[in-house]
Amino acid sequence: YAAKHTDAGFLFYDPKTDPHTQQRLQLSSDLRHALERNEFVLYYQPQINIHSGRIIAVEALIRWNHPEHGMIFPDQFIPFAESTGLIGPITEWVLRTAIAQCKTWQMTGMEMRIAINVTARSFQDPLLVDKLESLLYGGGNRLPPERIEIEITENILMVDIEHGAKAIRRLRDLGVSVAIDDFGTGYSSLAYLKKLPIHTLKIDKSFVMNMTEDDNDAVIVRSTIDLAHNLGYLVVAEGVETRDALDLLAVLGCDLAQGYHISHPLPEDELILWVKNSAWSIGESA
Ligand code: C2E
Ligand code: MG
Ligand code: MG
Ligand code: MG
């Protein structure tokens, strides 16, 4: 796993910082150039079906390969991009790249789904569905919309539930599914989400990482899986770092697992090798 956390401290987003400081201006200008200069790269982290042991999806995770500061992780620039409006073109780049990648895999027989993260602003973009549609159907070969899952956090929905519900319904009408990411860290409850046509619930890694040591976390994971299943959602556990955690998730009936125990996020070429050589081979979708 080549990517290391950067020590480029000045790039950290700090909401307390005056928006007009030199650092923010520098970051903003660097970010603009990042797109022009092709400095973004997508890494892909496998999701396996816990019961069949097979890879059925990947999550696309953006990195910024900064010429001076090295690999910069999304938590250090996505919130900034969101707050400044730079997120629009970044999201478009992510969607275009991820969908093109998925089409390429499809041509070589790798029929994996791809999960793509979007921020509140991008999710609320009234053109999101149209953009997805033209990416899926454009450029010669078609990608079935069922291959795409859009990940949003629960807090996006809390801002405006009506609007959020409408946006989810339009995606579902297109055939694209929606996952709630980092579930358990926000302010919503399953009772609140149950009216929404969500497909997948991703249990936040903070609960999964400690579940074999911390009984409270294990209880949270167990009850989230049960409630989610009763509401008809597919459940993904993220942050699966050990064999013990994976075994416990299997006992609890969790559907999919994602985490360092299975694989770190990988650049495209390494992902291909991983898929070819690892014990988890491509399987039917869940
Ligand atoms: P996320 O969507 O919840 O992604 C999961 C994060 O957990 C990733 O961090 C991943 O590398 C990390 N992770 C995976 N397995 C494990 C594990 O076993 N243990 C631990 N401790 N961590 C694990 P990453 O790649 O740094 O991404 C951070 C966040 O940035 C993502 O959280 C997502 O919210 C956001 N993000 C990533 N890519 C994009 C993107 O293309 N667009 C947008 N809007 N946001 C993105
Ligand atoms: Mg995610
Ligand atoms: Mg998450
Ligand atoms: Mg997260």
UniProtKB/TrEMBL annotation:
Residues of the EAL domain: 24-279
Name the record gives this protein: Diguanylate cyclase DosC
Originating species: Sulfuriferula multivorans
Taxonomy of the source species: Bacteria, Pseudomonadati, Pseudomonadota, Betaproteobacteria, Nitrosomonadales
